[in-house]
Amino acid sequence: MPHKNTLPLIILLHNFLVSLSQSIGSPPEIITIGGVLSSKIAQNEFEKSVNNLNLLNGRINLHFNSTSIIMDPNPIQSAIKLCDNVVSQGVQVMVVSHPPGGDSQPPISVSYTCGFYQIPVIGISARDSAFSDKNVHPTFLRTVPPYFHQADVWLELLKHYGWKKVIFIHSMDEEGRMILSRFQALAEKEDISVEETIKYEAGDNSFESLLTAIPSFESRVILLSATKEDAENIFEEASKRSLLGEGYVWIVSEQAMKATNVPVNKGALGLELFNATAENVHIKDAVTIIGKTIRSLFKNDNLTTVSDVSNSCKNRKSSGETSGKIIYRGLLKERLDNAITGQITFNNDGDRLNPIYYFKNRQPMGIVPVGYFGNKEAMVPALDISDNITWPGNINTKPKGLNIVTHLEVVTLEAKPFVHTRLRSEGGPCGTDEDKFELPCNHVNMSTNVTTEYCCWGYCMEMLREISQMVNFTYDVHISHDKTFGSFEKRRGSKTKQWNGMVGELVSKQADLIVAPLTINPERANYIDFSKPFKYQGLIILVKKTAKSSNLASFLQPFQDTLWILVGLSVHVVALVLYLLDRFSPFGRFKLAKSDDTEEDALNLSSAMWFAWGVLLNSGIGEGTPRSFSARVLGMVWAGFAMIIVASYTANLAAFLVLDRPEASITGIDDARLRNPNENFNYSTVKNSAVEMYSMELSTFQKTEHLTAEDAIDAVRNNKLDAFIWDSSRLEYEAAKDCDLIVAGELFGRSGLGVGLQKRSPWTHDISMAILGLHEKGKMEQLDNDWILKESSECPLEGSAPATLGLTNMAGVFMMVAGGIVAGVFLIFVEITYKRYRGLKEKELELARNAADRWRGNIEKRRTLRQTLQRQRDEQFAAIPINMKGIPLNTNDGSNSSMHGEIQGETHYPGKRLSYTEATGSKLYSPPTQPSLPSASSQSESRSVTINNPAYGDIMNQDDNFV
What we know:
Helix content is about 40%, strand content about 15%. By secondary structure, the protein is of the alpha/beta class. Strands 16, 17, 18, 19, 20, 21, 24, 25, 26, 27, 28 and 29 form a 12-stranded mixed β-sheet that branches. An 8-stranded mixed β-sheet has the order 7-6-8-9-10-13-14-15. Strands 2-1-3-4-5 form a 5-stranded parallel β-sheet, sandwiched between helices. Strand 1, helix 2 and strand 2 form a beta-alpha-beta unit. Forms a heteromeric NMDA channel with Nmdar2. GO terms for molecular function: ligand-gated monoatomic ion channel activity; signaling receptor activity. InterPro entries: ANF_lig-bd_rcpt, CaM-bd_C0_NMDA_rcpt_NR1, Glu/Gly-bd, Iono_Glu_rcpt_met, Ionotropic_Glu_rcpt, Iontro_rcpt_C, NMDA1-like_N, Peripla_BP_I. Keywords: Cell membrane, Disulfide bond, Glycoprotein, Ion channel, Ion transport, Ligand-gated ion channel, Membrane, Phosphoprotein, Postsynaptic cell membrane, Receptor, Signal, Synapse, Transmembrane, Transmembrane helix, Transport.
């Protein structure tokens, strides 16, 4: 920056060079900047700032001129002078200040005139909200923010101190409405609420009725938007009503901070805009950003000519694409980072963004700055405020900003294992049992107005005791009037939806806290506050166990029927092949001539079958093993096959029987029966609960009839309900206590359980910090062990040990053994019957064999007898001559003449006749008469028998003394 004494010389030199360039080459583009200012000093500063722009043009063929007037307090005269003395100079952009003597009269006439002729105007002192209306002031911009932008700084201050609820006092004029509207729009995003809005007429002197209700409000943070005069009256009335004492916070606007009676030692905190009234500084910044914008437009060929500029208001264009519109759009996009008043940028309304505000605090030594907000040193706005602030009541500790009641009303309901209840009349007064912490918790029936006395204990009650001791509050506990968690629905006779249950009591301020297993979800969070979760969980489905139907063939489950058939067929095929290999192999027992083995030791078909089954069933093989190498190779392969089959069967049998557990009737939340309910499958959850809202979003959820979890669990236990969807902690607890119940599927809809509080409750932060402290100290884990895990030990956890096999699992094996026994008994009878039948056959055969043997003996005897008799006859007839026909020729005693007649033929002489005794050795025998002899007598014929009679032997055996 050149020295101020050399600056006029530099400017003169520049003007000379410009004139020289015009005479030599093309003339530069002339840009005229007009000014309507408050004083001659401001005019001089304006002219100097415009001339400084010409030093920064560089190679751009551009020259800036300036023209200015002093604003007339009369708006009409100011507009006339503007046209005659400024617009007539062909200005492209304007800088406007305020009338002499103050800023009470804004430059409205200048903005109207320039707006009509599309001349951009930069105001350096106008802060009225009206200039943000582009319908009225289409080309107006300003280097100072409007008053209602203080709402932005108030919001940052509230966020810094954590105040969530305020009382807003404002005037009913345009400025008051604008600042309230902007604050509410910004506060809604930050979850900061306006508990009460107090409006007053500007210039009113009576505020008694307006401030009367403030002590009854919960909030103690008061935001005041008022003029200096109105603020003085408000402070006076507030002091009378002790509204400036300890516990209150007063945050006031810039105008209100100028009040002469801002209470000393009462600690009001206000704002002040940095360089708010420094006209010369704003002139420099306004001219600087104008020069930067026009140079950028010419450099980028966005503004190549200003030929549309006229030297008269009457002849100047007021529509179409003018240079004024181009410059206005360029100013909206431009940013000046090194401005004296801080970073200068404009929003779409032409209002300055990110100005610098100072925080001012009324202290005994006066109003002192205690911090700032804005881009003082950085490109982004920042808040920096000191801790050395005097608050109302002359204290240095930040007030809580709320009228905090330390005795709270707590609502809960029975939800085991978190909250247990009992009638006080059944077990005596609450707290008689030293092993558990019991609290009185009454229930009031709103329809009958009857109060029932209960005692409550459990996980949540012990947690409530710990939190109350850490945060320092007292409490009373009652059970929810309708014993539900709460849902958002229409009540009877109402057209609008309302919350019921515990949430409804919190919304209607009948309770301060909900201490129960309350699920944190977005629907509830819109109406109530939640603490940090004290337990994380999800949803799960409770069903009754359905044991697998184990039939008699359960032991056959490891293999499919086809595989069983193939295994059985393989046994017989292998046995047959083994027999054939060993039978026809030259090295088998059948072929070994020198083998000591007998025929029984050879591998016959029966032995091969026994061998194949024995290898498969891993039984000992004592006989009938293969002898040939080929059969033994097949035997080894069969043994490997049997090992694999048996091992696979054993493994699958363990899976089917040992680990066989009762199954759930559904697979989980993705089960088709939950997505498409039908009459054959009923499922539900608790009415007016978060689970019901979640489930209705997932599918076409059916109407639920259960008001409590206990009712639904009993319905599942009694087979009246197929499935119950609820919090995992409760259902896992119930499934562990009742071995007939089981949870199905995986967790879904994961969420946290938290303490419910009224919206923007002063206790939210403290209770959340207390819960986090309990987590860090391990208290929550201890509560889990005492109330959930400890009481869940009655049934073994799922998967902790294999299931015990029962008769239903192994009935088929026992039936197989029983079948073997019955088959054995049956076969023994068959064997006995068969043996008897074979015995009779063998006896008959033996008898026949014996008879045949005796017959053969008899035949032999007869043959011997015949031979003997024949020899006798031969000896007898040796001496008797006979003819060729065997007839004797004569006898010695002359008897039997017929026998001794002459017989023709050859004569024989038989030998000596032997007696029967001599021939047989014992028995007498009279030989039969030859049938051919005619001399045989009838008596001899009657006593003769046929020698060939088979009964002859039997007769001889029966009676040896026969003749």
